[in-house]
Prior knowledge:
Protein name: Gag-asp_proteas domain-containing protein
Order of helices and strands: HHEEEHEEEEEHEEEH
Number of helices: 5
Shape: globular
Largest sheet: 6 strands, mixed, barrel
Structural class: alpha+beta
Strand content: 25-35%
Helix content: 10-25%
Radius of gyration: 19 Å
Distance between the termini: 16 Å
Strand order of the largest sheet: 1-2-8-3-7-6
Organism: Cephalotus follicularis (Albany pitcher plant)
Oligomer: single chain
CATH architecture of the largest domain: Beta Barrel
Amino acid sequence: QKRNSTHLINVVQDKDESLRDxxxxxxxxxxxxxxxxxSFALAALNIRLPQDDPVVVTLQVELFTMKRILIDSSxxxxxxxxxxxxxxxxxxxxxxxxxxxxxxxxxxxxxLGSIDLSVVTGTAPRQTQVQIMFLVVDTPSLYNAIVGCPRxxxxxxxxxxxxxxxxxxxxxxxxxxxxxxxxxxxxYKTAIMDKGKEKVLPIENVELRGYVEAERPQPVExxxxxxx
Length: 228
């Protein structure tokens, strides 16, 4: 019986196992995976378990590829000003927001405004496009944006912190968006090294993309459960 692709994430090198033996065992296990993509196999090799890294992904936001997007359990979707500025959207398009936000340290943060942005998740044909209302805030952050529970629920997403993986259904099958463990650890390392400094990191790999036909989340008829 063929296994799910996430099985490879749990195939880790034993303490006394040589690299050659580990790679041989990993290759044997990969043969048991159904429809394995080479990119996923490489990502599985790069994930180190056990780990407690956050899920940090790359998404397409308003025709730009935006890295360092934190998948979080918060009740709001946040876009930081340094990232908003690089989207080349006039500031006068921001709608006023009167309600302040509560920061991680308990401080009150007043948003510059809110704005609806198109966010594409996945790759064609397994992708979905939704409008997300982001609150734009001008505070230092190692991330460019935070996507919280409301939008994750909108696309019926399931998040596995252990596997650094986000899954959600589309009309064409289940989409897997993998978190970048290296980027997540880089953010953590930078936060420790620059503790107390007001430092922000700009968007990496900002690229213009072609037009993507909008696809609103649709009920899935055949897929009932999303296995991890």
